[in-house]
Design a protein that fits this description.
This protein has two domains: 143 residues, Aspartate Aminotransferase, domain 1 (Alpha-Beta Complex); 274 residues, Type I PLP-dependent aspartate aminotransferase-like (Major domain) (Aspartate Aminotransferase, domain 2, 3-Layer(aba) Sandwich). The protein is built from 16 helices and 15 strands. The strands form three sheets. The chain has a seven-stranded mixed β-sheet, with helices on both faces. Helix 10 links the parallel strand 7 and strand 8. Helix 6 crosses helix 12 and helix 14 runs parallel beside helix 16. The N and C termini lie far apart (48 Å). The model has no long low-confidence stretch (mean pLDDT 97). It binds pyridoxal-5'-phosphate. The site of pyridoxal-5'-phosphate (PLP) has 15 residues, from helix 6. InterPro entries: Aminotrans_3, Aminotrans_3_PPA_site, PyrdxlP-dep_Trfase, PyrdxlP-dep_Trfase_major, PyrdxlP-dep_Trfase_small. It holds the Pfam family Aminotran_3. It comes from Paracoccus onubensis.
């Protein structure tokens, strides 16, 4: 085999990119990353970047946390792998489930493990189909989500995702219904207050339920703050309005906390931040602080009891992944929860979130082309607009957000373009000094790109 010389060319030749802008890679080459410390990563050329996206939202304790690596090593030495089928499971799995229920908003419940967030959502849908069928409601199969939601990439979770790019796969599948995105700044009508907007969305939900028939709907899934949709916090009162309608029609509310979970919004769960208790929680990404591929479905008491009854009826729940509840993943997750809650990480997010908001707001106010700052805790987005007053976006062909992200990369700052927005979701360990570095590099990139395109 003839290997090309550079790391970049070798990556290009043999690796298939996912969710990657191919013209950008062609023009700029791949960044091949070797290691990191704290919130920084290094590439093969010795360049250092402040990763203001925590990898992919998940490296919340940074890239070299000794305690997490130690927990992984210790478990690999003790018992390096096992499954959770046939009435067997590792001691680490038992302990993690206990811990997850303890830190959940539920006073009791049950946990089921997957290898990713997509699989956790997929599993939750199968659980709902299974229990509704078992309870004599086999028609209760439709899934409600929102436009711009991101729930993953498996055929089911991609169908739940409310993004146009899934059309290339012929998705969504039938029976996946996408409601309006609760983003008042962008989707509110002229003169419509945020409260009125929320009421309109609640009415839309109720009309949809009545039109489709409540007895055909399996569940409603929502991220407390939409992440990959561009960091979109819900409009005022949204979850209270939605939950009362869902309750009336007996439709479970599932909180997809893959991003919000474990402190990203300033509380352990996003549902806490927005004052609601869901019927189940989907967790992944932060669950192992990015050190192990793992997802979890955390069922509250009602769904746990009903699913248990359905399983007992046929003597099993016929579902599971080979690596579900992997002991190394569970050991890491146990340590990660401890690190976030007891080593000051969650506390750091709460302490520095107002500083992050203030710094980004100042950047917005100095810029003629940032139309909105939105977010909470340690997840924020700045949306670029051609015209602030009319919220008119830049021409999509200008790829403004990609250019900003590329300029940041040149300056040694990793951030992510999402639509016309730039997303910043740093690791929970970020210091004030590192935050200032992020502000400084971001503003230099914005100034440069806006001068080019405006
Ligand atoms: C990332 C994400 C998922 C999918 O998780 P994967 O581990 O990539 O499959 C699901 N839901 C939300 C909210 C996410 O951010």
């Amino acid at each position: 085999m003839n290997k090309p010389q550079s790391w970049e060319a070798r990556a290009d030749e043999f690796s298939m990119y996912g969710f990657t802008d191919l013209p950008s890679v062609k023009a700029r080459g791949t960044v091949v990353v070797t290691h990191g410390e704290g919130p920084y990563v290094h590439d093969v050329n010795g360049k250092r970047y402040l990763d203001a996206n925590s990898g992919l939202w998940n490296m919340i304790a940074g890239f070299d946390h000794a305690g997490l690596a130690q927990a992984a090593k210790a478990q690999y030495d003790r018992f390096p792998g096992y499954h959770a089928f046939f009435g067997r499971m590792s001691d680490q799995t038992v302990m993690l489930s206990e811990k997850l229920i303890e830190v959940s908003p539920f006073d009791r419940g049950k946990v089921f493990y997957t290898n990713s967030g997509s699989e956790a959502n997929d599993t939750m849908v199968k659980m709902l189909w299974f229990l509704h069928g078992s309870e004599g409601n086999p028609k209760r199969r439709k899934i409600l989500t929102r436009l711009n939601a991101y729930h993953g990439v498996t055929a089911v979770s991609a169908s739940m995702t409310g993004k146009p790019y899934n059309e290339v796969f012929g998705l969504p599948m039938e029976g996946f219904i996408h409601l309006t995105c609760p983003h008042h700044w962008r989707f509110g009508q002229d003169g419509e207050s945020e409260e009125q907007f929320t009421q309109r969305l609640a009415a839309e939900l109720e009309e949809t339920i009545l039109r489709e028939g409540a007895d055909t709907i399996a569940g409603f899934f929502a991220e407390p703050v939409m992440g990959a949709g561009g960091v979109i916090p819900p409009s005022k009162g949204y979850f209270q309005a939605v939950q009362s309608i869902l309750k009336k029609h007996g439709i479970p509310l599932i909180s997809d906390e893959v991003i919000c979970g474990f402190g990203r919004t300033g509380n352990t769960w996003g549902c806490e931040t927005y004052g609601f208790v869901p019927d189940a929680i989907i967790s992944s990404k932060n669950l192992t602080a990015g050190l192990f591929p793992m997802g979890a479905v955390i069922l509250g008491p009602d769904l746990a009891d009903r699913l248990q009854a359905a399983a007992e009826k046929i003597e099993e729940f016929p579902h599971g992944f080979t690596a579900s509840g992997h002991p190394v993943g569970c050991a890491i997750a146990l340590k990660a929860i401890d690190v976030v809650m007891n080593e000051g990480l969650a506390e750091n997010v709460r302490r520095l979130a107002p500083r992050m908001e203030a710094g980004l707001r100042a950047i917005m106010e100095r810029s003629e082309h940032i139309g909105e700052l939105r977010g909470i805790g340690f997840m924020w987005a700045l949306e670029a607009v051609k015209d602030k007053a009319t919220k008119t976006p830049f021409d999509a062909n200008l790829s403004v957000s990609e250019r900003i992200a590329n300029s940041c990369t040149d300056l040694g700052l990793i951030c992510r373009p999402l639509g016309q927005s730039i997303v910043l979701c740093p690791p929970f360990i970020l210091t004030e000094e590192q935050m200032d570095e992020m502000f400084d590099k971001l503003e230099r990139a914005l100034t440069k790109v806006f001068a080019e395109v405006a």
